[in-house]
Write a structure and sequence with these properties.
Blueprint (H helix, E strand, L loop, with lengths): L1 H26 L2 E2 L3 E6 L2 E6 L2 E7 L7 H10 L12 E2 L1 E4 L4 E5 L15 E6 L2 E8 L5 H17 L9 E4 L12 E7 L2
Parallel strand pairs: 1-5
Antiparallel strand pairs: 2-3, 3-9, 4-7, 4-8, 6-7, 6-10, 9-11, 10-11
């Protein structure tokens, strides 16, 4: 009986530490800046400044090759051999099938990639309708959340001007119910 109680206490403490570790791992990264124009529950209307990103075509649905190419870039596989801080979110654009890392605002000049499949570009400033959601990344989840966002945008009389972009904020070991994910739609002003 005593061993069972001790085991239960250890499991609870371990779970609490894992949850705390997942929460703090996200807070350890800088995020792409934005200004909230309007908030409505899980929905927001945001203004983003122009953002420098490095991106690559998604391979295998984005699980592996694409992330690794971008990660190698920020860990020094660039023409300056410069290490660059990881930021959140990792952007994935479904229509173009790309994955992108946002470059830190204080970076200055972004070094050029040494791998030809990685490019540097500027994401233009703009207003976005955004829906925050949790859960594991899946096509079904992305479709459901996109439909919710489109319905909200319609009710708000917002004119969508581009394909959706998904933002993922957490490392893969974060339990799905703790993950911060977003779907974004660029809005015409």
């Amino acid at each position: 009986m005593r061993k069972m109680l001790l085991l239960a206490v250890i499991l609870v403490l371990g779970a609490l530490l894992a949850i705390a570790g997942c929460r703090t791992s996200r807070s350890g990264y800088k995020s792409a800046p934005y200004t909230v124009v309007r908030s409505d529950g899980d929905f927001e209307l945001r203004d983003y400044p122009a953002l420098k990103v490095v991106e690559t075509a998604m391979k295998d649905g984005g699980s592996g090759g694409s992330f690794n190419l971008l990660f190698r870039f920020i860990t020094g596989s660039n023409d300056a051999g410069k290490k660059i801080a990881m930021t959140t979110p990792v952007f994935m654009a479904g229509g173009e099938r790309t994955m992108a890392f946002v470059m830190p605002a204080d970076l200055g000049k972004v070094p050029q990639p040494t791998d030809g499949s990685v490019t540097v570009r500027e994401m233009p400033a703009g207003r976005f309708a955004v829906l925050r959601f949790s859960g594991a990344r899946s096509p079904r989840q992305e479709t459901e959340q996109l439909e919710r966002l489109k319905a909200w945008a319609d009710v708000q009389h917002l004119k969508v001007s581009a394909a959706p972009v998904y933002g993922y904020f957490d490392p893969p070991w974060t339990p799905p119910f703790l993950r911060r994910n977003e779907v974004m739609l660029r809005i015409d002003l």
